Amino acid sequence: MKTPGPTPSSRPALAAPMHRAQFLRLAAALPASAALSAFVQRPAGSTPAPTMNTRPIPSTQEALPAIGCGTWIGFDQRPGSEEYQRLAGVLEALFAAGGTVIDSSPMYGRSEESTGELLAATAAARGTRRPFLATKV
């Protein structure tokens, strides 16, 4: 004989059901909030952000950050333009988060040239971190 379960009136009240669109909006925001947390200033004495994941280069075993900065379109800017001026902050944020890998190509317009100019301009902010520049043809 089957034991009767709770009646509808005896069940605890549940939150309103979440619609698919609400779920997708929340799910889409989660990776962005996780990525931005590395750039949030923490109070003095708080636990520092975890270090960036690295992977070894097979031939040398040099550890490189698993995430880098691509330069396609974004770094193809003329010196003096508003967009160009913002790029120094992009590189500073990359190095502050523990990144070093910068990917470029001669096919990306001025991207390689801009990257070199901006690396020279942000050398002090970079400290001892050496950029790892990747290119292709």
Query: Which percent bin holds the helix content?
Result: 25-40%
What is the N-to-C succession of helices and strands?
Answer: HEEEHEHHE
How far is the first residue's CA from the last residue's CA? 74 Å
Number of strands: 5
Strand order of the largest sheet: 3-4-5
Low-confidence region ranges: none
Number of helices: 4
- Please state roughly what percent of the residues sit in beta strands, choosing from under 5%, 5-15%, 15-25%, 25-35%, 35-45% or over 45%: 5-15%
Radius of gyration computed on alpha carbons: 23 Å
Biggest sheet, open or closed, and with what strands and sense? 3 strands, parallel
The mean pLDDT is: 81
Based on Cα principal axes, name the global outline. extended
- What class do helices, strands and sheet pairing give? alpha/beta
